[in-house]
Sequence to fold (902 residues):
Amino acid sequence: MGQIILKQVTKRFGDVSVIPPLDLTIEDGEFTVFVGPSGCGKSTLLRLIAGLEDVTSGEIRIDGKECSTIPPAKRGLAMVFQSYALYPHMTVRKNIAFPLRMAGIDKAEQERRITQAAAVLNLTDYLDRRPGQLSGGQRQRVAIGRAIVREPAAFLFDEPLSNLDAALRVGMRLEISELHNRLKTTMIYVTHDQVEAMTMADKIVVLRAGHIEQVGTPLELYRTPRNLFVAGFIGSPKMNLISGPEAAKHGAHTIGIRPEHITISPSEGAWSGIVGVSEHLGSDTFFHVQKTGLAESITVRADGEVGFKHGDEIHMTPRADMIHRFDENGLRIE
Amino acid sequence: MATQASRSAARLMMAPAVILLLGWMLVPLTMTLWFSFTRYLPMRGDSIERGLQWVGFENYVRFINSSSFWPSVQATLMIVGGVLVITVILGVLLAILLDQPIWGQGVVRILVIAPFFVMPTVSALVWKNMMMDPVNGMFAHLWRAFGATPVSWLSDASVPSIILIVSWQWLPFATLILLTAIQSLDRDQLEAAEMDGAPVLSRFFHIVLPHLGRAITIVILIQTIFLLSIFAEIFVTTGGAFGTRTLTYLIFQRVVDSQNIGLGSAGGVYAIILANIVAIFLMRIVGKNLDR
Amino acid sequence: MARAVTTRRKLATTALAWGIGLLIFFPIFWTILTSFKTEAQAINNPPLFWGFDFTLENYTVVQERSNYMRFLWNSVIIAGGSTVLGILVAVPAAWSMAFVPSRRTKDILLWMLSTKMLPAVGVLYPISLLFVQFGLLDTRVGLILVLMLINLPIMVWMLYTYFKEIPGEILEAARMDGAGLKEEILFVLTPMAIPGIASTVLLSIILAWNEAFWTLNLTAARAAPLTAFIASYSSPEGLFYAKLSAASTMAIAPILILGWFSQKQLVRGLTFGAVK
Fold:
């Protein structure tokens, strides 16, 4: 079980308000991702849930029990840190056993759980090594193993993949998703990388300056961003945002159109411009189009086969049903 | 950043150290300050129980006006200054030398560090008898070997002798700190300068020395604190005679030999003020260091 | 990148470095050598570097005449006791400063260091009065206390700089894993900080062993350590060079050996973490 409810939670460091009053419900078994630019308060929020920081006011309920004054060890949560935070003087086995030892679990049961966790995480061959002798990915697995054996109510991940190189990151992303499918335990995952958020989450919480900008499934956020910030943050490459007369035509202060929702042609279209840099990914090509006659340059996605060159003049047409409209406060107009 | 619980735990864990040091500092300091304003001669029957006679600033004036005061300041400055100059210059040269590739580097380093492990009373006695004795000392043998008359070092050249002994003790410290600093010097910088055609000497003055600036400051300041209060080296060798009576030693004599507590305490207050002036400079530098 | 250096140049620097090293070490070497000579040979002219009659007599004489073992024992108890006590007080304080820093942490640390700068002679009489008052004069307990207090600021500082290098996340991980404060310090922090604690202990022992102001002024017969033992040789009678050498060797040998074995730890300790 692992339902987590935050009620009117606030956090101040001295005079600085980091989290204004915030409400959030995380259902049991949900994979929730907190995402936002650095300094948005996502890590602080996680540490508040973990108990590594005190809330200034408000309630944190874990499975219905008010926990905001309970020390971290007693909350029944497990955490995986950005730096892995393995105990360098202990072997992998002892690292994984540490929380069990602290909980006073008997040796036989400790051994059973360690063996099981090691099997799940492919660590069986490394149990007697020290963290210093492991690769980044292996260390990451040990950190996860240390969390699993406690059989916690929820897992907390604090940017766990940011120290890995790109290739490993994709692999570990899959492993963590796989783990969640198997354990069905609540997971809260903090990242600044919207790709991780989109690919892993059941529910994404977009944060900015301590505020929740929007909560929803990845596709909800992608299709109906509630405001300009979410529209610009979710999706890669970024949504094109256009303001001025062109937006006014649609009765909005700003309009947004994703690169994949623009069709291009050499001869005709709503807008025209000159091809600048083209990024060829093989399957897709992204054209950065300059001098569009609009104030902004535009990014357009095309098939990998489309072959415009630097300096070509092209014409673009946005799909009318895919235009997002925002008012002068940056809020979505339905 | 932490929880209320860990903050109160932290205060609790810090308390013993803070309380102990606070007591260690405040109690004797207050007593010294009090004594310095009184007539306090235990040999003539003055004691705290019978009440001490308040004399205002008399002790302070007498301490400064005594014929021994200025010579003691002079001796202190000469010894501290001399040791600083010698240890810093030799320390820099030695550190550069030890940084070069040599055979048996480890052993040489041990030889150089060794004096640091020798207690001050022993090094003073060894130098006084084994090295500087006008009849049987090593220097006397050397002088005679070259046909010169041996020198009575500790009476005829007392201050330089003390400087030599103390420098020998502190050279390892200076060398070690400077060596660590040199080893942290970016080799690329030196090679870039070499590529630019800078000769050895100008590489030393424009790159190595500025890099050592901070380490040299630390050496000077830490040593100054310790050197201002050197005691055993003088106690064992000259007993403060032949112009080697430093401020510390003068105060020691006032308190212990002449049993004039009031006068000695006034001297003590002067010494504390002097040390604090140095301390302020040291704290500034160390404070900056902590911020990094 | 280490550069290829010509052998001739390396030979020259090696010779120079060894020459200077031996010169610096000479007084110690000469003292140890003389301690194995007879008194007559000790003052032989020219000085004897070899070809003397090797004898251990001086050592037995010194032990009999001055009861070396008692002074040694006092030194061991005082240096060891003040170090153990100091570590017990300094580790928690350094933990607080390194892992739960507040706005005042730096000020407290600097204030602690500033107590180190209080000139001992300025407070000699008050301390002796207090010692008399509490019956601590010429006791090992008294000296343990004083030397602990003298070295405490340096110990806190050194431990603090070592602890600072341990990532706080690891301690937080321990907290998440169910460790209380005691377990956190005992099972996680201390084992990780062993090198730092070791060099702090070493420096504290050396400083306490060699401290020569309070040990000379606060002890008489019962609690006097080796610093006082050796000071009693400053005005001897008769032939004494060999015996002085033997006594000196005995006074510095324990710390010299300890220092040599732990050179690496000490080098970092000695720089007070001030130079990286």
Notes: Chain B is about 75% helix and 0% strand. The mean pLDDT of chain B is 83. The beta strands of chain B are 38-39, 53-54. Chain B touches chain C through 106 residues (CB under 8 Å).
